[in-house]
Amino acid sequence: MTRIFEAPAYGPQGACYWAETEPDASWPQLTVDMQTDVAVIGGGFTGLNAALALAEAGVSVALLEAEHPGWGASGRNGGFCCLGGAKASDAMLARRFGSDAPRDWARTEVAAVDHVSDLITRHGWDVDRHSQGETLLAHTPRAFAGLEAKAAGIADSYGTAPMLHTPADLAVRGLGGPWHGGMTLPVGFAINPRKYHLGLSQAAEQAGAALFANSPVTGLTRAKGGWQVQTPKGRLTAGKVVIATNGYSHEDLPSWLRARTMPLQSTVIVTRPLTKAEQDGAGWWSAQMAYDTRFLLHYFRLLPNGRFLFGMRGGLRATPAIRRRIARRIRADFARLFPAWQDVEITHEWSGLVCLMRNLVPFLGPVPGHDGLFAGLGFHGNGVAMGSYTGRLLADRVMGIGGKGPDWLGTPPPRFPLGRFRRLLLAPAYLWAESLDL
After folding, report:
1. CB-based contacts of 90: which residues, under 8 Å, 6+ apart?
2. Looking at the chain, which terminus has fewer C-beta neighbours within 10 angstroms, N or C?
3. pTM above 0.90, yes or no
4. Has residue 418 got a pLDDT over 80?
């Protein structure tokens, strides 16, 4: 099995705050040979949603997680259940997939948020839900002018009107800071991702799915009538297989995946609980989740217990020196945007991997040339909603049910240049993005 980042990029999780809020689900290790209709590789939001939907439909399904439950991005993310999942512009979508593609994608984004909301409501999960949509904060006057120009189109695409904010309006709403205005779209909400993951796990098991942890897949081969999925201590024989590994994918599982994904590091810090006086001093007491208009954006929110979560992109490598540099950088950015909190204790810091595709849209569907093999990955840092919904749609594809989600999401993603050295492409891309953020 091969991956392109250094081993520390994949784990252990480090000082992840979410791990302290909810114990890991308890899944056994696969230690026997067994047969199932569908095998799911990957125990995050995508894999669990696929397993849950399949089990509820009466399909026998077994899920394999390489590490402990919640190990990957599903246990490390910022908890933003929001619009997103692609980085392709409307013009790109229209040019590649037709004039209806931008609106189809917008509807898919909304459907993804609604899917997670419906799951939480139906099962009655307590996931610390808060925030009415999300607020985009302009870091320059030019950025705010861009938000004003896009507002009408956003209303048309998403079927709900965004609210524009002046700096004074933001301050009144408890969203103070060095912002030149902002825009709120009332779609989405914030959650504790570990509690959501645990709810999915319990629901999938109750529906009949077999969930296994510490069972990394070491081999995936064609077998008569399906596939054989090998782990260190047991083997699954399955008619169909779903790959749901996103930024934690291996290059050769299957070899078709080689160079089709670009994992990127993202880093998060969390403060100690802030007092009401400290929140007032910074002008930030809103429960609204927010991010800024930079290409290399920051994302942040006040948690229900008063802690503040702040995230940004990580380094291009996972060496100790680079990690120390990123730790200094994220603290400097945090202090620059929230100077009143520059001396507040940072109690937690961790990193995880998001997944970029060369065509800047997710892939969802059958793997070409591999009968019975399906994959869903490439959520571009917005996997809480889109990764979850992709799992649900993958279950439909596996069962031969269509009708939900654009067909063009099944377009095979092209490979990145440079193969296993493709991370070299990120350095000039980051420099270009930083120049645009000035």
Report:
1. 102, 153, 157
2. C
3. yes
4. yes
